[in-house]
Amino acid sequence: MASFSYKAISTQGKAVQGAIAADRIELASRELRAQGLTLLSLEPAKEGSTAQGARRGSASSSDVLALTRELGVLLRAGLPIDRALKVMIDMAAQPSTQELLEELLASVKSGKGLSQALEAYPRVFDSFYLNMVRSGEAGGHLAEVLNRLADYLGNAKNVRASVRSAMIYPAFLLVMTVLSVAGILGFVVPQFEALFADMGEALPALTRTVIAAGEFVANWWWLLALLITVVVVLVRNWVSSEEGRTQLDETLLRLPLFGDLLFKYEMSKFARTVGTLLGNGVSLLQAISIAVDTVGNRPIREALGVLQPAVKRGQRISAALEEAGRFSPLVIQMVRVGEESGRLDQMMTELAGVYDEEVQVGIARSLSLLGPILILLMGVTIAVVIVAILMGIMSVNDLAI
């Protein structure tokens, strides 16, 4: 299905622009006219950018979470969908959010369901979101589904925020360590060079090494900066390749401590997505397909890729996971219990909760060790430089005596 960008005049006389998915441009034109729009232009959308692509792609997870929660509250209060959207338009603080809601309202008034209206915004509302809304519409409990969806998005946001905030302190320490060492070698150590200029081989080996390192940093800092830039560019290009990203993801999984946390984090996303979708009436095959796409680590995603064919063959998910050989006994046993008890959705949600807690505890423990290690590393480096300079000064004094 192709994507077409358009500019048109709405029934309210407002200029609107956006994108629509259709098999042919004639069908897109017919669909837009059925919505009451007077077309000004309609053309195939450029790949990676539509007339509205930047705006649609710029919506943050916080915006989507707020929109979902507010709409759920209004629907639970008994408002029809069009009236709820109108109230949200009046409350919208951001022009982009207001315009998005106006376009959704126009689509709903043209006879589309909410899920159909959301399909025009794939960068904002992913397949998981759309299937949740679609299941709510089909079952007649859209308000409850939106409430669960808001809880899901809120939980996912909290997990991401806790991981990111936890990394700020060690990242700061690491940067300060590098800058401190570079500053000492590049600015402090060269100040003693004149004092040790005539000592030659009489200087202790440690002092000569530190002085040489200081001279190199002071004279060739631009070369170091260039080398670091080249290395960063090469690494980014390698990581952006299919083979490089796969190798990096596999290496990350093998790291002590971090690899286990990464596995639990990815499995938590997968399990929570499957559990939420199954709990809202989405078929098992579709839930697995959507959930696999949420996994960022490629080796894990490839291992989970065996589930759909296995389910189609009539095989149990737990058996397929066990055959893959990559999943922990906890994952396999909880899935097996869910299959045997007929409560797979609940067990997957429980598994996600267990792993979420273990990830947060593991990150806290790791950072409690990483912080002191970085501080110790910085202290040892500075101490080595100071000792080297003191040893050089003592050697000068010995020669003077």
Question: Could you give a quick summary of the protein structure above?
Answer:
With 401 residues, this protein is mainly alpha-helical.
Beta-strand fraction estimate: 5-15%
Strands, count: 3
Cα-atom radius of gyration: 29 Å
Would you tell me the overall average pLDDT?
81
Order of helices and strands: EEHEHHHHHHHHHHHHHHHH
Model regions low in confidence, pLDDT < 50 over at least 5 residues: 47-58
Number of structurally distinct domains = 3
Sketch the major β-sheet.
Answer: 3 strands, antiparallel
Query: What is the spatial order of strands in the main beta sheet?
Result: 2-1-3
Q: Approximately how much helix is present in the residues?
A: over 70%
Figure out the total of helices: 17
Content-based structural category = mainly alpha
Distance between the termini: 89 Å
Description:
This protein has helices at 25-34, 53-57, 61-76, 81-91, 95-109, 114-118, 127-139, 142-188, 205-240, 242-254, 258-279, 284-293, 298-304, 307-312, 317-324, 329-341, 344-400, and strands at residues 2-9, 15-22, 38-44. It is mostly helical. It has 3 domains: 2-51, no CATH class; 59-154, Receptor-associated Protein (Up-down Bundle), CATH 1.20.81; 168-401, no CATH class. Strand 1 and strand 2 (15-22) form a beta hairpin. The longest helix is centred in the last third of the chain and has 57 residues, at 344-400.
